[in-house]
Write a structure and sequence with these properties.
About 65% of the residues lie in helices and about 0% in strands. By secondary structure, it is mostly helical. Helix 2 (about 20-30) crosses helix 3 (about 35-40) and helix 2 (about 20-30) packs across helix 4. The protein starts with a helix and ends in an 8-residue tail after the last helix.
Length: about 80
Amino acid sequence: MSTWKLVSLRVQQLCAAHGYNINSLARKCGIPPTTLKNIVYGNSHNPGVVTIKLVCDGLGISLYDFFDTEGFKSTELEDMD
């Protein structure tokens, strides 16, 4: 699976776990909803670490927690699809 798909999936998982939709999470993180939607819907294949950090801050988790999944630990990640 590509890295950007894993990031998209992880954002969706965290939204569900914390009871947010994309718009409410974006407001909580202080980023435009379109930025988060572009990540989730695959229009942004290279979200910046600063954006991911803002998402983590909004959710009250660390970058480590964001990336601490089996998908990201896999050595078979593809850079691009």
